[in-house]
Amino acid sequence: MGKLCCTILAGFWLLLLTGCATVSPAGFTEDQQVMIRNGDAQTPMRVFKITSESDSVLLRTASKPVRVDKDDPLLELFVDRLYATVRDSQSLGLGIAAPQVGILKNIIWVQRLDKTEEDMPFEVYLNPEIVEYSAEKQINREGCLSIPNRSAECERAQTIVLEYDKMDGSHARETISDFTAVIFQHEVDHLNGILYLDHLAEHRRARP
Length: 208
Description:
The chain has helices spanning 2-19, 30-37, 53-59, 73-86, 178-191, 196-206, and strands spanning 95-97, 107-111, 122-133, 137-144, 147-157, 159-165, 171-177. With 208 residues, it is an alpha+beta fold. The protein has one domain (25-206): Peptide deformylase (Peptide Deformylase, Alpha-Beta Complex), CATH 3.90.45.10. The radius of gyration is 20 Å and the shape is globular. The protein starts with a helix and ends with a helix. Keywords: Hydrolase, Iron, Metal-binding, Protein biosynthesis, Signal.
């Protein structure tokens, strides 16, 4: 009887402790939730940079899929704050990935330079995956919000096929070319812990 009472009491305390933790339908950890809630939808987040050792370690870590839940206010808040960050006067990038603000989730924003009839809008992509790369290549100069004061020419595929989830929970697939394809490749790399500098190193090794 004494052991049974101890077991019940231990279970009660475990339930009490775990019950106090806020559950995020999208799958954000408690630490990530704290980071996201530290500001409103218009508040930019801190951009992680390779000049910091701890930031660099996180930037080199692969992200995890996000559970798409259109009714999750935390997911909506994070998406808004990520957008505020890429549009902040201190950043002003053409794209941004969640790891760049310390959140290891597969979420990116990209400016669709190929949609000129829609004034080149920024669009958010959840769980983006490049499923095809063209054999044809292009070389463009790239920079990165997480690598300050540096840019370099980088070789990328001319065209890609992208699959992704939308905020409403639907799934989509599209073919993207030219410099917009470069932005997608750059941002999806971030989700895999890859920086554009890695492509430069590979290019140098391949040279005779």
